[in-house]
Fold these 2 entries.
Entry 1:
Amino acid sequence: MGEPVSLAEGVNVIHGELRGRFPYAHALLIQDDMTVLIDTGAGDRPLGSVPATPDVIINSHFHADHTRGNRLFPDAAVWAAAEDAPAIRSEDEFVTRAGYTRMGPGRARLMLDWIEHAESRVDRELAGDEVLELGRRKLRLIPAPGHTPGHLAFYLEREGILFTADVDLTSFGPWYANPGSDPDQFEDSIRRLAEVPARLIVSAHKGILREELPRRLEMYRAVIDARDQRCLELLARGPATLGQLARHWPIHGRPLQPGWLYGTWERIMLEHQLVRLQRRGLVRAGEDGRMERVAGA
Ligand SMILES: [Zn+2]
């Protein structure tokens, strides 16, 4: 953490507390005729030192580590993708979409307190895939669903700066543990972002990246394939229920504590992974409800 870091004239990264680790995230401030702050989960102290007051906040998606600080800028308009807007406005909608109801009694409140969730108005619902004229520069919105349905990335064409939000390039991702997440969409989004001729990426949890951007994106995408392989190897031993598969942690690769949190994420991501493998014709649900490999596939 520290002072905002300038990437180009009028473009600053606001580094999140805990070096941007969840429940914090890095943010991007773009000062132009219209000043835009992308994401507000950096923490109260970093957000208190932004070099200009935003006219507009754009939340990359509905997660609290990207929306929590909207309340710090009461005069700013809040924009977000139409798909994610309901979960920014409503705590109940957030809890459902975040899958907290699956973590056991009392856990939703525990999670909401930990992430310091705060409801926010959304003044404009974005369609995605549009270019915003900020004044001297254009900000291209790039739909990048998979992490959440309305997840957006952002490209400043003139500066070659790509804000990938939670296509975050961390070793923990790609993360698709919401009931509405989708690893196939996530994979398509990574590929779409790899086509952007960026000279620099800002990831919400990894920060500023300048080197080997296409290779890093491809390695990140390949993690989804590695998870496919671990599931297929387990199923090569014979049919198994989702619970039996989850006990081997094929998504995270190793057991993580606390189990009520990471175990729930493992199960949700495993469900999505098995849907992905079924779409590819590699796995099917047997008559007894157990998952099995498709012979010859
Ligand atoms: Zn997120």
Note: Residues 61, 63, 147, 166 surround zinc ion (CB under 6 Å).
Entry 2:
Amino acid sequence: MILKWYKPDYIFEKTINITPQFLAQRNIKCIFLDADGTLRRHKKLEAADGIMEWIDLMHKNGIKLFITSNNFKSKVMPFAQIVNLPAVTFSAKPTPWGFIRARFKTKVPLKNTLVVGDQIFTDVLGAHVAGMQAAMVLPLFHEEGRGFDVKRNFEQKYIDLYIAEHGEFL
Ligand SMILES: [Mg+2]
């Protein structure tokens, strides 16, 4: 069964494939970014290839970026400093609380804000609960273990559906 709230509005192969033109066409002025699996490989402090340049490109085009991570402060803030972005940690996605905290700081309406993340249960569902559009990115790494297998199988249905509807990832 396909549930509308879990369905990503867009799926990008990588975060760095999101272009200023794509955002301008949809009147998006701000992005709430997941960190782990979206900007960096798990447990590695550095940004994934091309992320620093992509952040620069977004800023040059007037797009506000804000990290909204469910991870702990001690894991997120050192990374936020490296990429020089503001962040809310322990954001409790899919509840809207982290997004509300971030929205208070960005001052950009949620209808002009896009959520970008690699997980349907947190990032995509959370975006829709809060009334935002959700762009899923294919995860930069896969977590190990049984719970994650179940989750990834669920997510695969939505990824397959996206390909059936659109032919390819963005
Ligand atoms: Mg993630």
Note: The beta strands are 10-12, 30-33, 64-68, 87-88, 113-117, 133-137.
